[in-house]
Specification:
Layout (H helix, E strand, L loop, with lengths): L17 H13 L4 H37 L3 H16 L7 H15 L2 H4 L3
Helix pairs in contact: 1-2, 3-4
């Protein structure tokens, strides 16, 4: 009979160093859990972190592909993007204040529509 994913199963004879067992026991006591509960909790957390890391890595890869498409062989786009990042770094928390967002937009506008190039003042 095939087991269901939700079935609870018993593993027999897990071997570990005594110092690790004691650390698990202490952690279980702090959480008011059984030793088994602590081990299961930590295993589930570990798999959750792995999934989050994989999701983040996937998103970073997608973002990199988008940036490459935007900036590849286009010095002007790369220059504007560098300017935007620079202005954002100068203003931590820039995304929480409308005035700061407006300041960045104005800087980018002046950067793109440089009066020296377009003959404006």
């Amino acid at each position: 009979m095939k087991r269901k994913k939700t079935d609870v199963v018993q593993l027999s004879k897990i071997r570990m160093r005594e110092d690790l067992r004691l650390r698990l026991v202490n952690a279980a006591e702090r959480r008011d859990a059984t030793l088994n509960g602590e081990i299961v909790h930590r295993l589930e957390q570990s798999f959750g972190r792995d999934a989050e890391k994989q999701t983040m890595e996937s998103q970073v890869e997608k973002d990199a592909q988008i940036l490459n498409l935007m900036l590849a062989k286009n010095d002007a786009s790369a220059d504007v993007f560098r300017k935007l990042l620079h202005e954002m770094q100068l203003r931590p928390g820039w995304d929480t204040k409308k005035q700061t967002i407006r300041e960045i937009a104005d800087v980018l506008h002046r950067h793109i529509y440089n009066p020296e190039i377009f003959g404006e003042e």
